[in-house]
Amino acid sequence: MPTTEEFLTASAWSAALAGVLALLAIAAFLFKWGIRFRLVGATGFTIVLTAGLFALGLVPISRVEIPGAVRFTVVYDNGAEQATIAVPPTISRSELEATLQQAASDLFSPGRMSQGTDDLRIRARAIVHPREGVSKPLYIGEVRRSLFVRDDENMTVEIDDRKLAELPKSPAS
């Protein structure tokens, strides 16, 4: 992932290119070249690109990684206060807790709408197969965090040990 310094360097190069294109566009108008309007468009696009690269250079891009979290898939997200993630059926209790914390970090967005609540609720589910041809979703845990505060210290993780016990045991256990 590019760093903020790399974005600032790219914006400097892009600004230099925009300056060269602007000089070419001015020369094209002075000498009535046929490509003068194309040069104006290329200059404008390069200026917009430069502004975007500069903005990315100002805001640090970071992703929190929670140790012990396993990969998950977002299977439902209403863009507001509810989301559901799918986890593997061989997940352990400690992995589930770390994965729920990771999902809470990954799915936080200041653009989420509040639908009468100030909490984002993320539920974790796994699919088990009690018999051939039958699939059963088990909701094994959830995390609740603030919709508005990125570093929520009041985040709560709840794990349903009864349903977690219904999951098949991993081969390593």
TrEMBL record:
Top-level taxon: Bacteria
What residue intervals traverse the membrane?
12-31, 38-61
Tell me the keywords, alphabetical order: Membrane, Transmembrane, Transmembrane helix
Record's InterPro entries?
Answer: Uncharacterised_Ycf51
- This one is known as DUF2518 family protein
What are the leading ranks of the lineage?
Bacteria, Bacillati, Cyanobacteriota, Cyanophyceae, Oscillatoriophycideae
